[in-house]
Amino acid sequence: MWWPSLRALKDRDPGDLSPRPFGRWGQFGLFLAVFCFFLTVQSRELPWNDAKPIYAAAMNFAFHGRVDASGDNVPKGKRTYDVHPFLASAIHVPGALFQRLLVSRFPQDTALAKIVSSHLGPAALGGLAAVLFVRLCLFLGLGLGASLVSSVVLVMGTMVGIYARVPWSEMVQAVTFLGFFSAFMRVLRDYRGKAVLVLGAWCGAIVNSKELFVLAVPGAFLLALWHHRDTLTRKETLRCVGLGLLGAAPFLVVQFIYNAIRTGSPFRTAYGNSAVSFVFGTETLDGFLGLWASPGKSIFLYNPPLIFALFGIPLIVRRCRLWATALAVTAIPVVLVYGKFMFWSGDWCWGPRYLLFLVPLLLLPGVFLVDEAIKHRRVVVGALATAVFVLGIGVQAIGGSLYWDHYIRVEHNARAQWLGAPDRTGNVTKPGTKKPCDPCFEDFYGLNWLPPFSPLAGQYWMAKHIWRGDSWDVAEADGPWHRYTTIPLTDIAVPYARGRLDWWYLEFSQRHAYRARLLQLILYPAGLLFGVFLCWWGTRRRQQSAAAVAETAPEPAA
């Protein structure tokens, strides 16, 4: 028995002339607008930390046909490989090819070319996330207006707005899991046709974005079997399993080949057994609490619209009960494993990056609230939604003002001077060493658990003073730690001096780059406006088509 909100979305009869919920031009316009928005606000930083080997593998693939993350002159026997699955690098291959073209034309601007090209992939994923989110909202029976507005909230008021600016792997995981969940909901509605084949492809994609997501597949399979137990025959079950494996095959084959190149075995990942042993070395679920409620990493602090969405859970459960069940069987196993990570915080990063894949799905209850507010003109609910959206924009503006490494270095020095340097000889990565441990408890407890060093407050403080051009001693005078101590923390001088505002335009401020700067300032906003126009045109055509259908509909019999 289907829930009422999905009845209107059944396969159409041949004579059905009702307008499509959101046409291809509208979807392309939304993608283009969001893509160009993220290019307009993209970071100025080259790929660092986890992103460095991810993009290096894409560059080697585009430039030399290799998949390692080593330099040009490294012998084959000494090459290093990225630990992430290949899809994390594959999304950067078009950008790397574009960089190859730019470098061939402008060899003196290699660094600038890399800045532009390395951010194309995550910006495109941001646009794809917005389109997939709107499609899922429409499938669940929500109005187009609420769906489009909520997609803007997703890309501007949540962590998606930060990770679509940087070439890390989190956006790949978020987009593939959103696509997987959407396909899963469609299979729960109807397993016939190509629905299972599409779901299988998304299953392969999530595993190729991060192997841990394989934990989401068994729950989805069992729930689908249980939900269709009254109609599925043994023959149909075998057919569905075959279709699912067929859809997943291309992604799995690529991953098996990538594993074989990196480790010598298609079934052994590049993380290695030693990494797995210390990552799962804890016997507690402290990380689970930290991901949801810690003062430094709570998902609600970095995504204020999710607080509003909490109040919509009763509504979405009432209208679409399978949302909660589907989310539980697919996401909870993954989150529980993340909670057992020794490095549950994922630092160095902005917010709880391991939970980015959940943000679009946790936002859905809020969309139901907004949809109800639009239908029934509930001004108070709309005002609250607007308030948390503005707050979310503010949080992401703080996150995008600086690359997060700058404040993390300041925090490390300030915490060590005030609270003392920790004894690192018992750390879990390299026992016996006194060097900093990334990201062990010894060096990251301040960021994760202590309010004086909260990244939200600290990054706002640092960006504010860098914007004003203040020296380190002027900035230190009102550091967030002075709510608790009067000790001047002079050790922040060196890392503070390295801080800089994070916007691509500032990197193109050199006189010789003015043409490239001007071209980008024209292309990016123009693409954004054109995308908005296409999106508006798509919704306008739908309204006109709906009006035409209403006018030509026959009068009901008396």
Task: Outline the structure in words.
With 558 residues, the chain is mainly α. It folds into three domains: 51-118, no CATH class; 170-400, no CATH class; 404-501, no CATH class. It has helices at 24-40, 51-64, 86-90, 93-105, 110-118, 120-139, 144-157, 160-163, 170-189, 195-209, 216-227, 234-263, 272-279, 286-293, 299-302, 305-310, 313-319, 321-340, 359-376, 379-401, 404-419, 441-449, 455-468, 472-476, 493-498, 504-507, 514-552. The longest helix has 39 residues, at 514-552.
Please indicate the count of domains. 3
Number of E-type strands: 0
Task: Return Rg in Å.
Answer: 25 Å
Distance between the termini: 32 Å
Q: Approximately how much beta-strand content do the residues carry? A: under 5%
Largest sheet: none
**Share of helix, binned:** 55-70%
Shape: globular
Structural class, by secondary structure, is mainly alpha
Report low-confidence residues grouped into runs of 5 or more.
1-19, 546-554
Short characterization:
By secondary structure, the protein is mostly helical. The chain is 65% helix and 0% strand.
Q: Characteristics of this structure?
A:
558 residues, mainly alpha, 3 domains, 0% strand
Question: SSE layout and pairings?
Answer:
Elements: H1 24-40, H2 51-64, H3 86-90, H4 93-105, H5 110-118, H6 120-139, H7 144-157, H8 160-163, H9 170-189, H10 195-209, H11 216-227, H12 234-263, H13 272-279, H14 286-293, H15 299-302, H16 305-310, H17 313-319, H18 321-340, H19 359-376, H20 379-401, H21 404-419, H22 441-449, H23 455-468, H24 472-476, H25 493-498, H26 504-507, H27 514-552
Helix pairs in contact: 1-6, 1-27, 2-4, 4-5, 6-7, 6-9, 7-19, 9-10, 9-18, 10-12, 11-18, 14-18, 17-18, 17-19, 19-20, 20-23, 21-22, 21-23
